[in-house]
Structures are given as structure tokens and as C-alpha cells.
Amino acid sequence: MRIGNIDFVGYPLFLAPMEDVTDPSFRYMCKQFGADMVYTEFVSSDGLIRDAGKSMLKLKISEEERPVGVQIYGHLMEPMIEAAKIAAQVKPDVIDINFGCPVKKIANRGAGSGMMKEPDKMVEMTRRIVDSVKIPVTVKTRLGWDENSLIICELAERLQDAGIAALTIHGRTRSQLYKGEADWTLIGKVKNNSRMKIPVIGNGDINSPEIAKQRFDNYGIDAIMIGRSTYGCPWIFRNIRHYLEKGELLPEPDVNERVQIAKTHFIKSIEVKGEKVGVLEMRRHLSSYFKGLPDFKETRLKLVTENNPDTVLRLLDYVKERWGN
Fold first, then answer.
1. Phi-psi region of 205 (alpha: psi -120 to 50; beta: other; left: phi over 0)
2. Residue of 30, 101, 153, 233 marked active site
3. Is 137 helix (H, G, I), strand (E, B) or coil?
4. Are 136 and 107 in contact, with CB atoms under 8 Å apart?
5. Range 117-132 average pLDDT
6. How far from 218 is each of 113, 151, 276, CA to CA, in Å?
7. Statement: residue 187 has pLDDT above 90
């Protein structure tokens, strides 16, 4: 599979862009466990144009995480074109357009999956963004706005004609949000359309090695993109790849390994964002790394309230001593 000048071999596994999750430190962790491609959190076109601090920080990428994509979203034509140009200045490997986010405050403004209501505008915006930058442009979208408007098959052809280098499809409508099961039948239909020449990447409910293999085998997709299942579990890429290549299931990391992973992630977060923000934004991850441990409530509370990095590291050592092997 090829996107722009990037060649992917075997079974490519991508990290989905997720707000407040796929920051540089988490992208780093997923790369360490074998993610072939990672994406930034989605970046507001309005924020980039206003030079807003939070939006500009999301453009911070490093060489060690390549190939990496910057994902932008917005509902206005000219700001989106300008945002793509700004994003291109940090030289990501791709610029991805978010036509899939179902969050109410975004979709109801006509951005994200709200664009599914205006496919003509979606296609025109895509074409103009493709024409405005020299970096490959990709799109992530959904099946349609609701079950009465499943437009993805025709839309995929039109987006391809607009010049995108790859298409990621989440197997739900906007109305479903993240409820119910993702429907991969239409993803497979798009992939197996003889007119489609660009890579088609499937997304939705990839939460185990067995399901990943089933998606590749049954639908012929070029790659899979994994989102929510990576949260607190960046090693899912390692486990899936091992199963795809060897046919064997790896055991889940024990507490000792999880502590080491959490430490590495924690230290990287501070390195990237500084002590105060790095500690604060790691809290959501630290509790997730140790889901299921018995009698962990009190320790979890300490992990997500402590501000001193050295104390957090000592708490992680305690987790290893108390629950490790």
C-alpha cells in the first residue's frame, strides 16, 4: 500500500486521531509498539488561523513518530484551506481532513461528520485543499449522516476524484455516535469497487487481534485504523501484529511491564509538555494502564491527583511492589 511517497508493507496498523489522547507522548508510545502511522489530535481550522496556542501546539511533531498525519477540521471553505497551508508548514507526511467526528458541538456546526449533510461542499472543500498544498491529503469520514443517507459508496469515488491519497471510513453513521456495532459491509463495498484505486482504511471496533485479522481477511482493506481500543493499551499494536504475522496470541503485559510502560509514557509527557502540563495531562492515561487491579481505588486516586513527578514515579514503583510479580 502506498500513500504519497510512503510505502506500507504487510498489514498496516494506524493510530486514529483522538482529541485529548493522541498527543506527542501517546503517539510516541504507540510507535514504540509498532503503529505504522500516527495522527495528531484534530486541529481546529479557526484555531490555527487565529494562531491560538492550543491549536498551534497540536502541530508539534517529531522525526521519531513519522510517518505522521496532521488532522484538521472546520466547516468554512477558506479557513480550512488556510489551515491546511499552515499545517503543511510543519511538514507532516499527510494532511488528513476530519469529516467524521460525531461530537455534537462540532457536527451541528457543519464540521466533522456534519459535512455528511453537504456532500457537494465536502468534495469541493477537499478538492481545493488538495490543490492548495503539496503534501498528500487524506480524508476520514463515516458511512453517512444516518441510516437513511448512507452515501459513502458514491462519496468515496467523488473524494478520490477530488485528489485524495487515501480514505479512512469509520463503520458508523453520525447518528450512531459510537453506539452499536460498526458496520463493515459498506467499507468492504467501497474497497471492492473496481473504480477505487486509492487505499481504503477501515476503522471501528478493532479491539482484539482476532477481529483485526477478520477485518483484513473478510473485507480486503488496505489498512486498519485503531482508536478507542488503544487508550490505556498502546501495546495493542504489538499484539495485533504478532497475531497477524505468527497466528499466535501474545499474553497481555503483566503489572511489571505496565508500570514500565506508564513510566516511559510519563517521562515522555513531561519532556514534551513540561512538568506542570505533562503531569496533569498524564492523569487520564495513568489510571487506564491499571484497569482491573483489585483494591486499586485508593492508589488510582493518588495517581490522578498528585502533582509532583517524583512522587508519581514512586507511586508507580509502589504499584509494581504491591501488584507485580
1. left
2. 101
3. strand
4. no
5. 97
6. 26, 22, 47
7. yes
pLDDT digits (tens, 9 = 90+) for 14-28: 999 999 899 999 999
Q: For residue 138, what pLDDT is reported?
A: 98
Grid look-up 508500570 returns: 259
Phi-psi region of 110 (alpha: psi -120 to 50; beta: other; left: phi over 0): left
Of 285, 194, 281, 159, the residue nearest 231 (C-alpha): 285
Tally of CA atoms within 13 A in the half-sphere of 163 that contains its CB: 15
Handedness of CA 245, 248, 252, 257 (dihedral sign): negative
Which residue segments constitute the domains of the chain, with CATH numbers given? Answer: 2-246 (3.20.20.70), 255-323 (1.10.1200)
> Which pTM was predicted?
0.94
Whether the per-residue pLDDT at 67 is higher than 90: the answer is yes
Q: Quick check: is 101 catalytic?
A: yes
Distant-in-sequence contacts of 322-325, Cβ < 8 A, 24+ apart: 323/255, 323/290, 323/293, 323/296, 324/254, 324/255, 324/256, 324/259, 325/254, 325/255, 325/256
The DSSP secondary structure of 38-55, one letter per residue, reads EEPPPEEHHHHHTT-HHH
The answer for residues whose C-beta is within 8 angstroms of residue 158's C-beta and 6 or more apart is 119, 123
Is residue 177 over pLDDT 90?
no
d(CA 137, CA 258): 36
